[in-house]
Amino acid sequence: MDKNSKIKALFFDIDGTLVSFQTHRIPQSTVEALEKAKLNGVKIYISTGRPIILITNLGQIEHLIDGYITTNGTDAVDDRVELRLSNAYEHLAGEPDLELKVLMLNVNEGHNKELMEQCQTLKEYAIYVARVRQYASEMNLNDAVARAIDECIKEGILVEFLRKNRSEVKMVSILEYDKEWEEKKLRKAEYEAGRSEGIEIGKSEGIEIGKSEGIEIGKSKGIEIGRESAQELPDAGFRKSDVLR
Prior knowledge:
The chain is mainly α. The chain has eight helices and five strands, in the order E-H-E-E-E-E-H-H-H-H-H-H-H.
């Protein structure tokens, strides 16, 4: 890639785009291409229908990623939002010793107009996404995606890309925009996380209960052994009951 290239940023979906459906990994050739793009000053972004908690298969390129567009950008937010790692803490006492700050840019249609004018591909992508959302509220998802693709091609929006990759775009769009499917994945991830935490808590509580019961059993056994030993003691000028005190 020429260092004088007008390309300033690249946006990638995950499944079937970066991560292979067959190997469930990112091909080494893709990793090397992304590294070369970074060396030429190009920003790398992930654009996916997944919530951030479900992005677990990008470890190979995590160090190359500049930002994420998650849940297809459906949350209503300002054009520019500063996100802090400490915002995720359930109980935050005072200022954290270590903080991570990230600037999130809203790239939905109608937002960050100056940025959109500098990146025509991103602007057209936002238009396509908005069309899919609009039509998906009026008809089934398959028809909504097909209509959005047809209209964008007719209107000169992402024309070359949509013509060349029509079937892949349709498949990925349907997969990523299936809200019910995404919510099911999220619920499953939350269930597994809660289940694992519950098992660990149960183990700890079980150990403590076991210790307490073991101490009581040990005391009882000790008293019985003491009594039996006392009964066997020869008369040595003191009372056997003294032994049990």
